[in-house]
């Protein structure tokens, strides 16, 4: 049997549960060089952490993340906490020689992300690797889209159209959770889901975003305070009190890419009826692709070289053994779901632990997404760039 790798997962809410599911499931489907064992689950509240550990099958718990960092027997620290704690945990873990997988976006500011990337670069010299959880890279259909770009099937990329649409904040009385607090989350829809679009667009096209022109908007500026609400818009023990929402509810921006493409991005948690519509459409000189996570097993592909009378978008069912990741799963055509992205992510991490170059995206690459988020915020703050309509 392969050598074990011992993991401490920090955080057990939505992302923590997704990662725990992934560590457990990956060795059941992938042939991995290392056998993952989640040795420790960390959460601030002891009773809740114990309950989560029981449910998610972890024997030991701790209430202080420093336990994960100081323990000799931990190899990987998996950070599933809000953004305000990423830098301090990751840097302590790297200093202690632990590999780090950190949820996205990497940090709450460029300054923090730079410091994390610098610590990661030093750690990499000692064979210690970092990874950031841009999980949608692990969607077979998006990975296929990237393959098409690399194969030249799309030709010269002209348009990138990225939308990430959710609706879990549409109700103005949904509770004030940490994702609505700038100090804790860094930003709103922009960093929470727009960051995925930025990463996916750059990764699929192989081009960097050079500049942006943006607007950010908050529709609901105060929400009911809750002591217990944790999830996405779900009910909590709300009091009559309301507290301020300090992040954006919606982000929109245009972008120029390094290879000449023009981009239009939109991120919102108010698109009523769109539950997790993470969409990316790319138009090139030879072909186009269109993806929507609500139909995650499919990729729309238009081949401009097809004879004109049969031209049209075709729907590729990205579920066959020839497609990225899918040969590890069910026999032909049975399809995957959201949780499987995290399985792919940890399989990639485990495969890369002993490889000198590590897995992608590492902290250095993820710093780049942070720089784009920062440019979007700076552009949106600069009211001189907002041109009023003259009537
Ligand atoms: C909430 O908007 C959220 O859980 C994001 O934080 C995740 O990164 C995304 O995958 C799904 O939506």
UniProtKB/TrEMBL annotation:
Keywords, sorted A to Z:
NAD, Oxidoreductase
Origin superkingdom? Bacteria
Where does the Gfo/Idh/MocA-like oxidoreductase N-terminal domain lie?
5-124
- Cross-referenced InterPro entries, in alphabetical order? Gfo/Idh/MocA-like_OxRdtase_N, Gfo/Idh/MocA_oxidrdct_glycsds, GFO_IDH_MocA-like_dom, NAD(P)-bd_dom_sf
Concerning PANTHER family, the annotation shows: BCDNA.GH03377 (PTHR43818)
Q: What is this protein called?
A: Gfo/Idh/MocA family oxidoreductase
This chain's source organism reads Nesterenkonia aethiopica
- Domain (GFO/IDH/MocA-like oxidoreductase) ranges: 144-289
Any Pfam family matching the protein: GFO_IDH_MocA
């Amino acid at each position: 049997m392969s050598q074990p790798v011992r993991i401490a997962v920090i955080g057990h809410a939505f992302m923590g549960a997704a990662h725990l599911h992934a560590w457990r499931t990956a060795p059941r489907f992938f042939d991995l060089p290392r056998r993952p064992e989640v040795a420790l689950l960390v959460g601030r509240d002891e009773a809740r952490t114990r309950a989560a550990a029981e449910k998610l099958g972890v024997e030991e718990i701790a209430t202080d993340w420093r336990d994960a960092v100081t323990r000799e027997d931990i190899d990987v620290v998996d950070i599933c906490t809000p953004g305000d704690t990423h830098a301090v945990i990751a840097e302590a873990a790297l200093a202690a020689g632990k590999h780090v997988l950190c949820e996205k976006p990497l940090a709450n500011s460029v300054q923090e992300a730079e410091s994390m990337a610098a610590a990661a670069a030093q750690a990499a010299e000692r064979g210690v690797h970092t990874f950031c959880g841009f999980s949608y890279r692990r969607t077979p259909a998006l990975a296929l889209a990237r393959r098409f770009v690399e194969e030249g099937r799309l030709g010269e990329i002209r348009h990138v159209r990225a939308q990430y649409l959710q609706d879990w904040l549409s109700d103005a009385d949904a509770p004030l959770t940490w994702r609505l607090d700038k100090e804790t989350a860094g930003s709103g829809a922009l960093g929470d889901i727009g960051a995925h679009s930025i990463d996916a667009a750059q990764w699929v096209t192989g081009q960097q975003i050079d500049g942006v022109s943006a607007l950010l908007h908050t529709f609901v500026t105060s929400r009911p305070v809750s002591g217990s609400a944790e999830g996405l818009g779900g009910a909590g023990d709300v009091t009559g009190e309301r507290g301020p929402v300090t992040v954006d509810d919606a982000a929109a921006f245009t972008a120029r890419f390094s290879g000449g493409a023009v981009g239009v991005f939109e991120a919102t948690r108010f698109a009523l009826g769109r539950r997790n519509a993470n969409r990316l459409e790319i138009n090139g000189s030879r072909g186009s692709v269109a993806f929507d996570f609500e139909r995650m097993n499919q990729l729309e592909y238009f081949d401009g070289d097809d004879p004109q009378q049969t031209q049209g978008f075709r729907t590729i069912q990205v579920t066959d053994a020839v497609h990225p990741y899918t040969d590890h799963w069910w026999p032909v055509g049975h399809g995957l779901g959201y949780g499987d992205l995290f399985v792919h992510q940890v399989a990639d991490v485990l495969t890369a632990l002993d490889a000198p170059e590590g897995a992608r995206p590492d902290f250095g690459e993820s710093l780049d997404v942070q720089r784009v988020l920062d440019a979007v915020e700076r552009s949106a703050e600069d009211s001189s760039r907002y041109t009023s309509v003259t009537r």
